[in-house]
Each structure stands twice: as C-alpha cells, then as structure tokens.
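Changelog note: in this version the structure field was regenerated for every chain. One regenerated record is shown below for reference.
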Amino acid sequence: DTVIRGLGITIPVVFLVLLVSSGNWIVASFSVLTIGFIVSTVLGFVFTILGWELGIAESIVSIMIVGLSVDYAIHLGHMFTVAGKDEGIYP
C-alpha cells in the first residue's frame, strides 16, 4: 500500500521534472511511460514470480528501481533530443 502511494506521488513529480528539463511534453510522457513499465515489470516479477514479501529491504530496492529507471529514461530522452537536433529532424 505504501509503495503504491509512494509511486503515485513520485510519477507526477518525475513527469514535471522531465518536462522542465527536456522542454518537451512528448519526451516527458514517453519517459514516464518507460519508467512505469520498468517499475511494474521488475516489482511484478519480484513479488509475483519470486513470491517476496514487502519488507524493509524490498522497500529500499523499490526506491532504487525508480531512481535507476528515471536515470535511464532521462538519458534516453536527452539523446533523443540531441540526436534529433543534430540531424535536423527535431526543432
């Protein structure tokens, strides 16, 4: 319950940060979608397939998964905008 509440707070904040940093709502939207897929896939696998219970270690790992997926999505979005500007396809 607290992980879902935390993600509900984190995802809109991440969207706003990505929107400000990239200046493009499409890149921010796709980045948040990517982050959501990464987090749901990893946490779904760990809790469903492996059968882990939510404890202190799992809560810390959940936070780390969100942080790493945000880092990954920011780098992808940044390279998308840089490559698009270099090639002249992105204004």
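Spot check on this record: The CA atoms of residues 17 and 28 lie 8 Å apart. The radius of gyration is 15 Å.
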